[in-house]
Specification:
The protein has about 425 residues and is α/β, with parallel strands linked by helices. The chain is built from 13 helices and 13 strands.
Length: about 425
């Protein structure tokens, strides 16, 4: 990940463009551009060889104007306060666009989970949660999975919080295993949302999704599910890259076989039924749809001129720098911003939280139905705003979000 671009500066730049169009008053502008709370913790962990390592962790609660804070936890060597703060701000806007009653937060621990044993990851998760235990809770701040964290990690989060409180509190975290109060459909929800939004965008542009070609960066929880569901719609996934390399097949990759390869080898590289592809070459592909579904700052001013896709659907958070966005938009590329495109995950997290609090669980079809309706509404809200304000979809998404969060801020007023 490029460290040259401050993600929080990128967020501020995107925010400012939209806030200007809204004529946002300076007092609300001031409030909405500052994180409410930033927590930094040190997490000592006994390693398998007996030594002790201290890992740095963050939890940023950006806003609770619309409800409890909400956002994932990522484990990655590149995690830093700037990034976590930007991601927490993006969660704030994302929840507002999805029209769910949450504010925004994000957590991160600086570590490389690929080099840690399962026991070490469990110990690290438990200590990190113990360090922030007073800041989180079903009505305060509800974590979820993000880069390199999964349902098992969320089970440890739930258990650690529950042990501190002397009772089982399932609604403190979402993205849990279904057996422990998780929701059916949550794991697939971000990729499903990316697929729904891609389908709606294609419909709007008059592009036949059943004939569309797609390139995907990342084959994790978002990219792999989007690949499978876009294939179901009839689209052809012609290229996929990940941390280990890439694969390419102009006739369309066999996504199910690719998934089996990744389950075994942890990377798409070496998949025998396709040609190898250099990671950087993904952006040169002559495709209809490009889905960056890996990390931030991937599409930059340097590689943007090479991109040929007609639609870019941001499955990842912050994959496009503001300069790259401006260039691509100018060239007529239909850019669907992260805070809309990947909002399926947190929307299903909201459904999980509701089910936990009710103690009554829905069928997968009910979850998917509600997700479909929520995302189509969000897409329409953003598209209509972009048409009426004559701005691109990213600015429109911010306008929708800022209006809702600013409205709540005005009504609540200042405390003391
Ligand atoms: N980490 C996901 C995101 O960036 C999901 C967050 C959540 O479900 O709270 O949207």
């Amino acid at each position: 990940m490029s460290q040259n671009h401050s993600m929080f500066d990128a967020m501020l730049q995107e925010f400012s463009g939209a806030a200007k169009r809204l004529d946002l008053e300076p007092s609300i502008w001031e409030i909405l551009t500052k994180p409410m709370r930033q927590i930094i913790v040190s997490c000592p962990v006994q390693m398998d060889d007996g030594s002790v390592r201290v890992f740095k962790g963050f939890r940023v609660q950006y806003s609770m104007m619309l409800g409890p804070c909400k956002g994932g936890i990522r484990f990655h060597p590149g995690v830093n306060l700037d990034e976590v703060t930007a991601l927490a701000a993006w969660m704030t806007w994302k929840c507002a666009i999805a029209h769910i009653p949450f504010g925004g937060a994000k957590g991160g621990v600086v570590c490389d989970p690929a080099t840690l044993s399962t026991r070490e990851i469990e110990a690290l998760t438990r200590r990190y949660i113990a360090e922030i235990v007073d800041a989180i809770g079903p009505e305060k701040d509800i974590p979820a999975p993000d880069v390199n964290t999964n349902a098992q990690v969320m089970a440890w989060v739930m258990d650690t919080y529950s042990m501190h409180h002397g009772r089982t509190v399932t609604a403190v975290v979402t993205g849990k295993p279904v057996e422990l109060g998780g929701s059916l459909g949550r794991r697939e929800a971000t990729g499903r949302g990316v697929t729904i939004i891609t389908r709606e965008a294609a419909k709007h542009l008059g592009l036949d999704i059943t004939k569309a070609t797609v390139a995907i960066q990342g084959f994790g929880n978002v990219g792999s599910v989007a690949a499978a569901l876009l294939t179901e719609l009839g689209a052809k996934i012609v290229a996929v890259t990940d941390h280990g390399g890439g694969v390419h097949d102009p006739d369309g990759l066999d996504v199910a076989a690719l998934q089996r390869h990744v389950d075994e080898h942890r990377t798409v590289a070496g998949f025998p039924h396709a040609d190898p592809l250099d990671g950087a070459a993904l952006f040169d592909m002559d495709v209809d749809v490009l889905v960056p579904a890996a990390l931030g700052n991937q599409i930059t001013a340097e590689n943007a001129p090479r991109i040929k896709a007609k639609i870019i659907v941001e499955g990842a958070n912050g994959p496009t720098t503001p300069e790259a966005h401006a260039r691509l938009h100018k060239r007529g590329v239909f850019m669907i911003p992260d805070i809309l495109a990947n909002s399926g995950g947190v929307t299903a997290s909201y459904f999980e939280w509701v089910q936990d609090r009710y103690g009554y669980f829905w069928t997968e079809a009910e979850v998917n139905d509600r997700l479909e309706r929520k995302l189509c509404e969000a897409f329409t809200d953003v598209l209509d705003t972009s048409l009426s304000f004559e701005v691109d979809l990213r600015a429109a998404a911010y306008i929708v979000a800022i209006r809702r969060v600013a409205g709540a801020t005005r009504m609540r007023g200042l405390y003391a």
